[in-house]
Structure formats: C-alpha cells, structure tokens
Retrotransposon gag domain-containing protein
Amino acid sequence: MDNDSVMVEYLERDEIIYELQLRGAIASDLDSTDELCEFLRERMIVERQGVELEECGQRECGRELQTCSFKEHRLRQLLREARLTNDLINRVEALLWHLSGRVHRISALTEGQQGDRAELQLRLRESKRWYRERLRLGAVQGVQRPESSDSGERARAVGENPDAIPISKWGVTFSGKETEPVAVLKFLKRVEEGRSMNGIDEERMRRGFAQLLEPPALTWYRQCVRDSVSSWRELKERLKQEFLPDDYEEGVLETLRECKQGSSERVSFFVARFEEISE
C-alpha cells in the first residue's frame, strides 16, 4: 500500500502522531484524533507534491523495537479473526503500511538489535503473505462495525457506503491558480457530484476537504479557514468569496435579468437553465 491509498483514519492516535512527526509536525494533546487525521492528510498531500518535510524529534532504538514488536503482535491477532470485515481490512492495511515504514527507519542499532529488527521484518513479510492469501481465498465478509469506543468516529470517517471511493481518489483538485474565472464553481459542482455518488455527508466532506486542495488554495485553507468554519455550506461560501471575481455576482444578476424563455422552450427546461445560472 502506498501513501495515496492508505486510510489514515484507521491508524491509532499514537501512530498518527508518529507519522506527523515524521513529516515535521508536532501534535498537541488538545487536538482531537479527527483533527490529527486531517492534519496528516494535508502533510501527505504536500509530501506528494515533492516538498521535503524534515522529521522532528528523536526516537530511542530499543523503545522503537519494543513498540513495533507489540504492534506486529497485535497485527497477527487481527489476522486471526474469523472474518475479515471491511473495517478490519482497512485497519490491517493501515497498520501494515505504518509498521513497514517504521521498522525500516529504525537505525543506529547494536548488533543484538539488528537481529531483532531483521526478525521483526521477517514476521511482517509473513503477515503480509498471510493477509494476501486470506484475501485471495475470499475471506472478506460483509461490513460489521465493532462497537468499540472509537467505532463511531471511524464510521463517520469511512462513511456508510462500503464501496465509496476515498475523497483523495476522486481526481478532483483546486489550486486557486486556474485561469478560468468560474473554475471554483465547476470544482464545487464536481465535488458535490462525488459527494452524492459516494454517500458522503456534509460533515465528513468538510473534514476531508483539504485532500482536494493544492497550494496556494491549500495554504489559504489551512491559515484562514480550517479553524473558523463549522459547516460544509459555510466552507463553500468562503471558497466562493475568495476565488470568484469581485464582479461575479453583478454579472450573474445581469444575466438573470436578460434570461427569457424561448418561444418553443418547455417551462421545465427554462427553469433548469435559470437555476443553473443562479447557482
């Protein structure tokens, strides 16, 4: 699994914090896990654009080996579950992605620690093979969301549609550098289409919106908007205010005044045309 496809909402809080530190960000205890997930997605977007992010913080090798060994043991327990539900698959894949990179980065080892790391890497490879074999044999069952303390948070992040395409995979982006004056409206229309097709509610769309932005729009969003909007509707309005031409509303009003029904045009077509102009 690569950075583009990993579902970071299935990482545990300490794993998210590790991935943030790896990308030069310091997490606060005041930040919710949802907020840390969103921040990590944004850092990964920047990373995909070729920006080098300098790691912050140092980690003691022995402690890292212990942590990774514990998590690898937990991974094996997950793989022993009788049925691989969608939630379980997403957690396993996120943990495999996290552990593979984390174990690889452990350095400055003693001779004994080098052997421990090699053994841990071997167990991870075995777990990957075991997991792929289970998938190949068709062990995936229907979605059964566990009633754990964080199941509600994860259900909101993943959505109710098990076939939903992740927001980051929609192929829709906006940078604010587009030359077309109404590019932001076309962008929002495609976003709404994606939201409707994938059954994503407004709150999840608001939280995952940064995945569709590129600088400078992403920078504007992080610095000016992210912490000040509380709804998807408000976020859309702020986006329009920032990126539509100053005279846009005046131009729309003028167009509406001139909008007349054709002599042979059906009323329903005329109304649809009128509504499209006024959106």
Observations:
- The chain has a mean pLDDT of 79.
